[in-house]
Amino acid sequence: MAYLNETHEPTLESWVASANVPDNGFPVQNLPFGVFRKAGSSEGFRPGVAIGDQALDLAALAQTKPWDGMAGVALAACQSSQLNDLMSLGQAHWSALRLELSRALRAGSPMQQTLAPLLIPQADLEFSLPARIGDYTDFYISLHHATAVGKQFRPDNPLLPNYKWVPIGYHGRASSIGVSGQKFPRPIGQTRPANENSEPGFGPCERLDYELELGIFVGQGNAQGERITVSDAESHVFGLCILNDWSARDLQAWEYQPLGPFLAKNFASTISPWIVTLEALAPFRTAFQRNPNDPQPLAYLSSPDNKEAGVFDITLDVLLSTQQSRSSKTEPALLSSSNFKEAYWTVAQLLAHHTVNGCNLQAGDLLGTGTLSGPNPGQEGSLLELNQGGKKPVTLPWGEERTFLQDNDEVILRARCSKPGYPSISLGECAGTVLPARF
Length: 439
Ligand code: MN
Known about the structure:
2 domains, SH3 type barrels
C-alpha cells in the first residue's frame, strides 16, 4: 500500500508565508479541517483548513466552484456548519480535495489571488465542534495505563484476562463533548461510603482528573449488520483530533461496578478544533509490533497493512495552568509527554472490533483511544498515575501542589508529529477549564 503522494513532498512551500516557518505545525503538508467563524461575531460557523497561522474559508471558496470532479463534489460538501457531509463522501473524495487544496496553496499557484481574500487569521477565530457527533465510544488501548491503574486496585493481577485479546471500550455520551476552550462546572455526585454501614458521600467531586487521549473521527460509516474489515478500516477514518476525557475518580470508584463508567465521565469531554486527516499523517506511520510473548491478535484484527504501517508516531503533551500561574504570567507547566505509538491496538483494529458484531458506525461518530500513557515515568496520561493513586501530590514549578484538579485549573493537551526530513505537523491544542461546582 502506497501512502505517500505529491501532497507529502517535504520541499513543498506555500504562498502563505507563515506556513513555511519551521515547526509552525500547519505547513501545506498538513491541511487539517475545522469549523469556525470570526470570534464574537454572529456569522455562521463554516468549514475551513488551517494553513500556517491562517485558516482558509472553504464555504466561501465553494461559492467560486473552482474544481470539477471529486474535488468539486467534496468542496461543495463544505458549505454547512458541520463536516458530516464531507466525512460521509469517503476517502477518494477527501483525497481529491486535499490534492487540489495542496496545489492551490503552494508557492506559485495561479489560484493565489482567488484564495488570499478567503484567509482569516486563526487568532481571530472561534471554533465549534467540527462535526455533529452522533455516538461517542471510548476505548482503553494503553497497556501501560491499564496496568498502572489496575495495580492500584489489584496489585498482584493488574490486567484482567481479556485485555490482550479484546480492545476494551464503553459507550460514552456525545452531548457533553465541547471544543477546546470548553469550561464546565466541577461535577457533583455520590462517592463511596466510609464503611459498609454508612451512607455514600454526596457533593462536589474531590478527585477530578484529565485523560490524555486522541479522538478518531469516523468518515463513511457501515450498514447495520455489516462489518468493516481491518484491511478496509482506515478508509472509514476521516482523521484524528486530541481528546480530554475528564474523569471524576471518586464518583467513578463508587459507580463503576458492574456496568462501567457513567456519571464519572459524561459531564464533559473536550476535543481540539482541527481534525488532521489520516492522509496527512502518512509520513508518520510505523509498524505494529506485538510482543512475541503476548497473544497475537485474532485474524479479524490483523492484516498485512496494519502490521506494516498501522501505527502512528504522534507525540503528546499535558500542560497545566492555574489561577496563580496565570495571574503571575507564568508559562503552563509540562506534566508529562507520551506517544500514540505505544498503544496496544491500532486505529484500524478499533474500527474492525467496533463493527465485528454488526454495529453500525456513522459519519461524525467519535472514538476515543483511552488514556495514552507510556511505559516510563514522565509518560503518565492522567493525574491518577502521576499522583500514584492519590498518594503523592505533584509539585508545580511555581510551588503549588496538585493531587487532583482544583477550580480554575486549565488543562492543555498538545500533539504533533516530527520526523527527520519532513516538516513537522501539529494536531493543535485541546484546552479546558474547571469551574467551581454549582449547587
Ligand atoms: Mn477515557
